[in-house]
Design goal:
The protein is an alpha+beta fold. 16% of the residues lie in helices and 36% in strands. It has helices spanning 2-9, 32-37, 111-114, and strands at residues 17-19, 43-49, 58-72, 78-88, 99-104. It has a 5-stranded antiparallel sheet. The longest helix has 8 residues, at 2-9.
């Protein structure tokens, strides 16, 4: 959050994209990832996951959601951000679903902007 606040305070001199590892509580009391994924996805992406550490390569399909919102900055203000969530829809039995959660200052209105 500190880097997002600093960028905001500097007038956002550059664009940022960060991994979202905390399911933040929003000012309305709900959670970030639940809010973003509660609506319709902007689309679906498909790709081949490369072989890694004893796991074979496999095809992955993920639904993608994106929503602009204000994140509490912990100082009584807000940081404007877009949250993008990409969640695997049908992982193979025994495999953990692949899910990515990102925050950016860029607007995302469609799948092409979410997953260029």
């Amino acid at each position: 959050m500190a880097l997002m606040v600093r960028a905001r305070d500097l007038g956002t001199p550059l664009d940022w994209l960060l991994r979202s590892k905390h399911n933040r509580t929003l000012s309305e009391g709900d959670k970030l990832w639940v809010r973003v994924t509660s609506g319709e996805p902007v689309g679906e992406i498909r790709f081949t996951l490369a072989q890694r550490q004893g796991k074979r390569a496999r095809e992955v399909a993920q639904n993608v959601w994106a929503q602009a919102l204000q994140l509490p900055d912990g100082q009584g203000g807000f940081v404007q951000a877009t949250c993008i969530v990409a969640r695997e829809t049908e992982p193979p039995a025994g495999d953990k679903p692949i899910e990515w959660r990102l925050l950016t200052n860029l607007p995302v209105e469609n799948l092409e902007q979410a997953a260029p």
